[in-house]
Amino acid sequence: MDGVLNLWHATGIANFTFPALIMIAVGCLLLYLAIARNFEPLLLLPIGFGAILTNIPVAGLSEPGGLLYYVYHIGIDSGVFPLLIFMGVGALTDFSALIANPRMLLLGAAAQFGIFATLFGAILLNFIPGFEFSLQDASAIAIIGGADGPTAIFLASKLAPDLLGAIAVAAYSYMALVPIIQPPIMRALTTQEEREIQMPQLRTVSKKEKIVFPLMVLSLTILFLPAATPLVGMFCLGNLMRESGVVDRLSNSAQNEIINITTIFLGLAVGSKLAADKFLTVETIGILVLGALAFAIGTASGVFMAKGLNKISKSPINPLVGAAGVSAVPMAARVVNKVGLESNPHNFLLMHAMGPNVAGVLGSAVAAGILLAIVG
Amino acid sequence: MDIGGLLTTAASLMVTGMVGVFVFLTILISAVTLMSKVVGRFDDPATAEPTRTAKIQPQQGVPQAHIAAISAAIAQFRNKQK
Question: How far apart, in whole angstroms, are the C-alpha atoms of residue A362 and residue A159?
């Protein structure tokens, strides 16, 4: 009889707690969004599964000795996984649109206002009872506005590891929601004539320029913002491997195998942070609200900056491309292209939007560096 | 509570952060513009040459071996027709 009782106590049914069941349901919701709705499936699928695994009673996958515990400590606590992803993103990024029109960097800079305004908003939330965000927490939440998953995870792992699960889930969910969040804001802030503006074709960029570019970005980061060099450095390494053309094998590995393997474990490790006691808090709701706000403000400030640039610039600039300043490569650029085509079926803005789009990646990495340097 | 203090820190962080991002990216803009000019100066003769040679190549006409092969094939075809 004792044996049967012991066996019963070892089953999941006897050990389930209500919060853990809710978190497993959250994991299933993420799986549903990934599989049925195709929302950032590459990340939401492993994150959702990680959330299920970590909440399994008895197995203790996220406790010392468990697989997810080690994956988290090796990959995220150390900051290694987001940086490996950044190397792959660098190897996937073509900077020619930005090199051809470097002023687009200003749009990437303006869109980072979403980050810093949200930081202020997160501290404001402290007036509501139940919220106690420190400056570190607020900075980690605000970086969701950078619309850059690896940057958000990197900064959260350094500044607010407890909030990492909620921050990563919010960042990736909103990145998937870019086609829904951005267009209404873009339409509200621009006139029909502005949306119809056609931009002159970009010049071709030489191979030498593309090779010098990552080295130059790195040197400037070393000189002015060494705190951002982990992110920018890995990004530039990936990009140099791509553009140099002499290490195609390495560049291909960074773009495919390395980024894919890392994505699996990054997702699992983030999912392991979706434990009931950490996620089912009022703070998570605050993070989700602030994340959406950060995206909206970033989009709006990018559009405003583009409007301003259009007024003073000799060559016309369609204000829509400003919205691509929140990184979310290449989704934000595609959204700009789509909204542009709605107003003028002959106006293809994709290449023009890629400039601010990759500028946004650099901008959010720089913003992360600034936050690390001041708050970290 | 020192929320007031936190708020002032957050506000100053907002200003320094935005100024920092803008200053850094503005420096990058001038650096990229300068780099494009410098590289363009080095690059011009190098890129011009290959395009010139590329244009000449097709004008050199069909290689002798191809002409020989084609005329042989035509001759064979005509022989068969008879």
Answer: 20
